[in-house]
Amino acid sequence: MNVMDAICTRRSVRSYASDPLPPEVFERMRQALRRAPSACNNQPWHFILVTEGPLRRELAAASNGQNWMADAPLTVVGCALPDQAYQRMGGYGNSADLDVTIALDHLTLAAVAEGLGTCWIGAFDEGRVKALLNVPAHAKVVAMTPLGYPASPDLNRPLEPGKRKDESAVFSGNRFGEALPEASA
Q1: What span, in angstroms and rounded, lies between the C-alpha atoms of 91 and 182?
Q2: DSSP label of 13
Q3: What is the CA angle 141-144-148, rounded to 5?
């Protein structure tokens, strides 16, 4: 699967088969996270790969009761290390959250290419998640995703084009609000 196919096929999966991840697939998912770009290549992240069933259930409970998360054989928890991040992103802030997000996005696309599903989880009680996983005070839990095989094979088909905003709502040419230029040959 090429990257555009992965982008067009990726969706939020909320129903997982109980099948475990083969070791070679698990390793490729780890490498997708590890090889993601970050500002100044600082890699200000730490990923917790949660495989223990009872702990996955507790994470789901700490995620506003999204209990379906625990059905996936793995939950990836992306933590930012702000002190290790580039400190002048946009001239005012650090890159930690963005860097973790880029890595998790790499994971979601690599997962689609493997026939796996993911779902961005941003609704969680960070204090509870940090306590469950022994995350130190200096780290920030940015997002999580369950990772596993979708319960339905229908979840591995491209999304319908109508599910996206019109291009005129998301693109400008040269300056905000200006019409797009014609594509150059």
Answers
A1: 32
A2: -
A3: 155
Rounded to whole angstroms, how far apart are CA atoms 27 and 111? Answer: 11
3-state secondary structure of 80: strand
- Residue ranges and CATH numbers for the domains of the chain are 3-157 (3.40.109.10)
Cα angle value 58/47/105 (rounded, 5°): 100
What's the DSSP call for residue 45? E
Backbone torsion region of residue 158, taken as left when φ is above 0, otherwise alpha when ψ lies between -120 and 50, otherwise beta: beta
Model confidence pLDDT, tens digit, residues 117-137: 999 999 999 999 999 999 999
CA nearest 96: which of 148, 138, 51, 128?
138
Query: pLDDT tens digit string along 59-108?
Result: 999 999 999 999 999 999 999 999 999 898 888 889 999 999 999 999 99
- How far apart CA 33 and CA 101 sit, in angstroms, is 10
- Give the residue from 87, 99, 103, 104 showing the smallest Cα distance to 12: 104
Query: Which residue, 18, 12, 140, is CA-closest to 74?
Result: 18
> 45-50 and 74-80 as β-strands: parallel, antiparallel, unpaired?
antiparallel
